[in-house]
Design brief:
seven-stranded mixed beta sheet, alpha/beta, 7 helices, 240 residues, binds fe (ii) ion
Length: 240
């Protein structure tokens, strides 16, 4: 298992580890994203047991002790298992997440107090990079869920939205909705609720130009259309 490194947008690096045993025979990718700036930010920490490998990969781009912000979508091992390892490795780093995650879990689980982000609040990394935090409760699963949008590059970090199996290139411009629907049929990992479509359409209103998937390639193109099509598919599932 090696971790591939690709710059998917200006100053935004994707770290991707393909694990053939997960969702075999297709396999499954686990991706982390690093946004450079005066205060560098990581979205997804990787699993705790993969910290030596992931941190070594990040160190090829930047000294890991420079990391300032540790962020992720929700509280699961692939999203934040290595949270405390990063806090220990980067002395100035802080976990940042929404009010629900901090109140319910991170105030206790994180080794240093987290920064609490209000819905819509921006973390300014310096160097032109601005990360807007968006509450997405229960989307695609977990009450505390939230996502980040980098304004200068139009990059939406989608977390588990659009999850697909298989390996493949770092960046695609083709269809990501079809594979996401097929994978939802397989895993049933989303918490279907009437709020799902509206929450995803709110993300579509950002008109992102790049979508960073946690499990799958990154996508460059009309992010709004892809998000609206995904929302429509969830609406159909809820109606059914
Ligand atoms: Fe998840
Ligand atoms: Fe995930």
């Amino acid at each position: 298992m090696d971790t591939k490194i690709d710059e998917i947008a200006d100053g935004i690096f994707r770290f991707s580890t393909f694990v053939p045993e997960v969702a075999a025979p297709a396999g499954f990718t686990f991706n982390q994203f690093l946004v450079l700036g005066d205060e560098p930010l990581i979205f997804h920490t990787g699993h705790r047991r993969m910290f030596p490998q992931i941190s070594a990969a990040v160190a090829r781009v930047m000294p890991i002790e420079r990391l300032r912000w540790i962020t992720f979508g929700h509280y699961e091992a692939d999203e934040c298992g290595a949270m405390n390892d990063w806090l220990a490795a980067a002395p100035r780093s802080e976990v940042a997440h929404g009010e629900t995650a901090c109140m319910v879990t991170l105030g206790d689980a994180a080794d240093r107090p987290p920064r609490v982000l209000k819905d819509g609040e921006v973390i300014d990394l310096g160097g032109g990079k601005r990360l807007r935090y968006l509450d997405t409760p229960h989307v695609p699963h977990a009450w505390e869920s939230g996502l980040l949008y980098e304004e200068s590059t139009g990059t939406l970090f989608c977390g588990d939205l659009f999850t697909q199996t298989g390996g493949g290139p770092a960046l695609v411009e083709g269809d990501i909705v079809g594979p996401a629907i097929a994978t939802e049929d397989m895993f049933r990992s989303s918490s279907l609720s009437p709020a799902m479509g509206p929450t995803i359409r709110r993300l579509a209103a950002l008109a992102p130009r790049t979508l960073g998937l946690m499990h799958g390639p990154s996508f460059r193109g009309d992010g709004a259309s892809a998000l609206k099509a995904l929302a429509e598919n969830y609406d159909q599932r809820i109606r059914a």
